[in-house]
Amino acid sequence: MNEQSLILILEAMAIYFLVLWTHSLRHRFGLAYFYALIGGLTAVMSWVTDAGVKVEVMGITFMVGSTVFYTSLLLSVFVVYVFDGPRATRIAISTVVGVSILVPLVAAALHLQMKTSHHAPLGYVPIPSLRINAASVAATLVDLVFLAISWEFLGREPLHMFLWLRVFITLLGVMWLDVILFATGAFAPGPEYLAIIKGSLLSRLIMSIFACPFLWIYFRRQDRINGIRIENRPVLAIIKQVAEIKKELTLAQQEIERRKALEKEREELIGELQQALSEIKTLQGFLPICANCKKIRDDEGYWQQIEKYVEERSDARFSHGICPECAKKLYPEYYNP
What is the pTM of this model? Predict the structure, then answer.
């Protein structure tokens, strides 16, 4: 083992440990620092990849950008999805894709600025390739979504797959998918296309074998220390979650409109009740009434017929008739019960 391969291994181990350790601190500090780390690793990956930094080990070419930094990003999204769910995963994916788009644009702007200023090219800032960067961004987005889907697919109950095997197959599948998508988008149909795919598939297999124990140990440690169980979600959970959020937003909007309508009806009802209340006149308290003629004394001391008193103080109106007792007393000759 030469010095370059040893440095590569130590570098990969340090970055993997940093990623998993930062994620383990989420219960104390949240995921903000973890997302910042993901963004920084993505930027470094883009620059190292554009610079073409690579290491030869036993006839196998390891690209430092994909071997160390891209694999660390896979581990990052992997643990976020398993322990924090689809919502946090979408933030992580957006961070990776957003920085992947931004970094080459910044590099291109810097080179353009130096060129227009008639300065020497920036040797320490690699010149980005539009095709390679576009292929990298597209492949990364598909890879990270595929990672979540394949993890849930392999976790279905009929398969009864061991955790370490599930981790390894998921990681290897994503890495091989990235090789096919990225190489096809960046180099097909060039003369080195098949050679790049063959060499990359072999190097990714080795990296999967190397990175799998890190993930497996981390999963077991999280379960033992924090008591976190790995949740089995639907296969398309990361995609369905988007539809569910849209549905929730639609339902929330409908609920807001319904409550606005109810509030308007309530205000209208209150207005009607207030208007009705203002029109209602009630008689209450003690009413002085003559024991003989039944006249009522008003507040000013005047005596009024009871009919007039009530009509002035309410909306009631009187019509006259004769009760049976009075009819018998006044008109006995006509009374016929």
Answer: 0.66
